[in-house]
Design a protein that fits this description.
The protein has one domain: Na+/H+ antiporter like fold (Up-down Bundle), CATH 1.20.1530.20. It is globular. The longest helix is centred in the C-terminal third of the chain and has 79 residues, at 370-448. It is an all-alpha fold. It is 77% helix and 0% strand. It is built from 15 helices and no strands.
């Protein structure tokens, strides 16, 4: 066990963060999601550990904690980038509609597939297993779409964030139905949602008014601690806690909108800008670190042999096919023909893993192989990678064509200028010659006289 000493763990953790930083750089150049590289890194670490120690420690507990904190940081990071303006109302509504309908349709089809092909899978359990497989991964999408057009980038940020939140709400609504004492039906669910929004608004305003007056330099981690506390208390009260995080982030980003008219007197604009800037940086950095360790540990916990089952491959391919067919229909309805590369940006990731491990014992099915989960995550990430690389090449080709057109235009303009200069010179010479000729003739005539 000397291999797992505290110093070795510090060295290992530090190296993982350094490697993850380089993975991000590779991801920006190649459009291969850093998450895939982190999972592969986790698998390699597992192989090394298996040859060095007799038994690998159980990381599932730490995976759940990292996943929860990572989810909060990722949603907060996304919310801090979302501007609420009148012209963005319809894009937000459209992305929410695509996220909601895509989630429901994908979960419905996936539940039917699991119920049909997994032994012992009831329709109720099938819905619980299908829901995590139907949620988009904002942890993968948000860092990966930076190179897209602004309009498409914003669509993916909105859609993946809404998919995370609605998917988690749907999952816990379904788990509540397993226990009749906790199942309040649709009315109870609506009341829960309304109560969560009210608490989110009150808590967000209170936090902003208090924290902008704190003079201490070390206040940002205090702020994050308060948000984590609100999230955990909300979960204990069976509220949709992610909405609290989303609302807080939106208010901080759009303070002028949420403090209209005379209410601006309660704001210290300079302090709020500073808080927003610092919070954005620390959230970005924290999300990066948490995401790094989450996917590496997930790679360590993967059982690769589960991918060799023909049933796993067959069921996974059916689910993946249904994801893209449903997505094609929805995007075509809401966006028309301009659906690339959005059609293929539908990876599953952090939320899928997190909710899979949160399925209640009474709903778990022994016949379900975790390889389905792994296959869907890897396949959807690879498909997204292919689409992003293809889109990047397309943009590169267009830029090259534009550059060539500009060069041709410049050459043409230069040629026109040269012709104009030559013409002007020739015209000048001709005019000068015509002017001088009469003078010469008059001189000759005077001499003759």
């Amino acid at each position: 066990m000397e291999i797992l000493s505290s110093y070795n763990l510090i060295i290992g953790a530090s190296l993982i963060v350094v490697i993850s930083f380089f993975f991000n750089g590779i991801s920006k150049k190649t459009n291969i999601p850093a998450v895939l590289m982190l999972i592969v890194l986790g698998i390699l670490i597992k192989i090394i550990l298996e040859n060095l120690i007799p038994e690998i420690p159980d990381f599932l507990g730490s995976l759940e904690i990292l996943g929860t904190i990572g989810l909060i940081m990722i949603v907060l990071e996304a919310a801090l980038e979302l501007e609420l303006k009148k012209e963005k109302f319809w894009p937000i509504v459209k992305s929410m509609a695509v996220a909601l309908l895509g989630l429901l349709a994908s979960a419905f089809i996936a539940a039917l597939i699991l119920n049909r092909f997994i032994p012992g899978m009831t329709i109720q359990s099938a819905w619980l297993y299908a829901t995590p497989l139907s949620i988009l991964s904002s942890a993968i999408i948000i860092p990966s779409v930076g190179g897209l057009q602004q309009k498409k980038k914003e669509f993916h940020i909105y859609e993946s964030t809404f998919s995370d939140i609605i998917g988690i709400m749907m999952f816990y609504f379904l788990t509540g139905q397993l226990n009749p004492t906790e199942d309040n039906g649709a009315v109870g669910f609506a009341w829960n949602l309304l109560l969560t929004i009210v608490i989110a608004l009150v808590a967000s305003y209170a936090i902003i008014l208090i924290f902008q007056r704190i003079k201490s330099q070390a206040k940002l981690f205090l702020l994050i601690a308060v948000l984590l506390l609100l999230y955990a208390i909300g979960k204990k009260m069976h509220l949709s806690s992610l909405i609290i995080i989303l609302v807080f982030g939106l208010i901080v980003k759009n303070v002028d909108l949420f403090f209209p008219g005379k209410t601006k007197v309660f704001l210290e604009s300079k302090r709020m800008k500073q808080i927003y800037h610092e919070l954005h940086i620390i959230t970005l950095e924290t999300a990066f670190v948490i995401r790094t360790f989450f996917f590496v540990i997930f790679g360590i916990t993967i059982v690769l042999s589960s991918l060799l089952s023909l049933n796993v491959v067959f069921v996974s391919l059916l689910i993946i096919a249904s994801i893209y067919v449903i997505r094609f229909i929805l995007l075509y309805i809401f966006s028309g023909k301009d659906i690339l590369p959005q059609l293929f940006i539908a990876p599953r990731g952090l939320i899928t893993v997190l909710l899979f491990y949160a399925i209640p014992v009474e709903a778990q099915v022994d016949g379900f192989e975790s390889g389905i989960l792994l296959f869907v995550i890897i396949a959807t990430s690879l498909i997204m990678t292919w689409a992003m690389i293809k889109d990047k090449r397309k943009i590169g080709t267009l830029l090259d064509e534009i550059d060539e057109e500009i060069v041709d235009r410049n050459l043409t303009e230069d040629a026109i200028r040269k012709n104009q200069n030559t013409y002007e010179k020739e015209t000048k010479v001709t005019i000068t010659g015509n002017i001088n000729e009469p003078n010469n003739n008059s001189s000759e005539k005077s001499l003759e006289q």
